[in-house]
Amino acid sequence: MDKKRIIGIAAVAFILALAAGIGTYRFLSEKGRVAEAAKLQTTGIAVAVVDIPLGATINPNQVALSPWPKELHPKDAFPALKPVVGRVAIRDFLRGEPIVETKLVPANKNNSGLLSLKVPAGMRAFSVKVNEVVGVGGFIVPDSRVDVVVTTAVSPDRQQEQVAKTFIQDVQVLAAGQVVEQKDNKPVTVNTVTIAVTPEDAEKLALASNDGKIQLVLRNFSDAAKVETPGSDKGGLIGSMHRSRRAAVKRTKSGKKAAAVQVADSSYTVEVIRGGKRTEERVD
Predict the structure, then answer these.
(1) Pick the CATH number of 43-118 from 3.40.50.1370, 3.90.1210.10, 3.40.190.10, 3.40.50.2000
(2) What does the DSSP 8-state code read for residue 104?
(3) Residue 258 in this model has a pLDDT that exceeds 80
(4) Cβ–Cβ contacts within 10 Å for residue 233, how many?
(5) Is 250 left (phi over 0), alpha (psi -120 to 50) or beta?
(6) Pairing between strand 213-219 and 145-153?
(7) pLDDT category, 239, cuts 50, 70, 90?
(8) How many helices (H) and strands (E) does the chain have?
(9) pLDDT for 33
């Protein structure tokens, strides 16, 4: 009886093991089939592996092939990396974003005019000649925010009367660099700053650069407030200097007067020691 029971238990165990094996085989087979089907439904396309900014030339370290669903990937994506490397981005690419033809400079175009890619819609790029002092010691760099100040004569017949006025505020710097110009038949290096302005402000800048002197004033990037100023002329500047000088003289005279009426104290103190005791006595 015990032998039959053992055989029965063994048979049941075998059947259960066989069923488990068949189930595992079917599960793994189905999983492999699903994986294979998913593989057949994806394709490799070029994507950005880092953030790529506008105007950057794409290098091999910035892109890689990544599987992408066939029905979902952009139609102008690249299935290989070679056509992407060396192209210039005309839009920002975020990490993981597919590289597409519509966001790249056309392959048959040269890259000499990349500055135009940074000019905001409706704006114009205007280059201003500056020196190291006007350029805030070289601290005016692309994406800085500046105000524009012009110093010019009050009128053509009053050239000696100069006035300074902030006439454009909170403009974006697109580029800062150097150009070579001819002066007295010799090449001269000139520092320039290119800013983005409206067409109306471009006209003002053209007039100001011909009739006066333009200077740029660096401002806080987060400060977009517009401030109305009356402008400054030599009369106001000299007047403020005279007022400061008169105030200083007045303070000096007041100090001298107070010193004249001060009475000197002619008394002095003598230290006396008697029997080991120390005392101080005032003598007039």
Answers:
(1) 3.90.1210.10
(2) B
(3) no
(4) 15
(5) alpha
(6) antiparallel
(7) low
(8) 4, 10
(9) 65
